[in-house]
Amino acid sequence: MNAPTHWQEAQEALSACCPVMRRLIEQAGPVVLQARGDPYQTLARSIVGQQISVKAAASVWARFEQACRGKVEPLKVSRMRKSSLRKCGFSERKSEYIKDLSLRFVDGSLEPSGWTALDDEAVIAKLIQVRGIGRWTAEMFLIFNLLRPDVWPLDDLGLLRAVGIHWSDDPELAFKDRSVKASRAQAAELGEVLRPWRSVATWYLWRSLDPLPVSY
């Protein structure tokens, strides 16, 4: 599998600075983050994945692809009835979000071609103007489409849970609370140790909770 160009450097740096990350990287094996080159697909998958498990999101997306008769594309989705989206497993709100996203791609009001030149916060600022796209969804875009190496999504429940689980047993990095789910403040503290490869660390933390590779 083709990994992002920074992946090996990130693996080595994370393994050197953190024994927990070294263990998680070794346990994960050769599987790496698989990016999607299509910005629309990444954002659509991120909307589908909001607040549900990786497995549930994969199931909804499979039905969605079937309803689109192949590739999920902005024009096709913009013409779909909300009732058809609901049959795929979309909530009423997510149906509205995916329709709005699709229409913005169709009319050109959302144009990601110039975003590679922007820093992370500038891209997030553009994306959160879209209905249904908050900071978490924008961060998924940074990780999975733009392949930014140092994104640390503190609103991600999987990340907080993984941090709480893996660092509660590490005497060098254990948090005083020792709860299963870390707080945002605790995760932010750990993130300072893992800079500038926090996207890669996040991916391995997700993998530690679910063997199905995370992909948006």
Outline of the structure:
This protein is mostly helical and 216 residues long. The protein contains twelve helices and no strands. 58% of the residues lie in helices and 0% in strands.
Describe this structure in words.
By secondary structure, the chain is mainly α. The protein has twelve helices and no strands. The mean pLDDT is 90.
Order of helices and strands: HHHHHHHHHHHH
Q: Report strand %.
A: under 5%
User: How many distinct beta strands?
Assistant: 0
- The biggest beta sheet, please? none
Taking the alpha carbons of the first and last residues, their distance comes to 17 Å
Helix content: 55-70%
Low-confidence stretches: none
Radius of gyration: 18 Å
Shape: globular
Topology of this structure?
Blueprint: H1 7-17, H2 19-28, H3 39-48, H4 54-67, H5 74-78, H6 82-88, H7 92-107, H8 120-127, H9 135-144, H10 157-167, H11 184-194, H12 198-209
Helix pairs in contact: 1-2, 2-12, 3-7, 3-9, 4-6, 8-9, 10-12
Keywords:
12 helices, 216 residues, mainly alpha
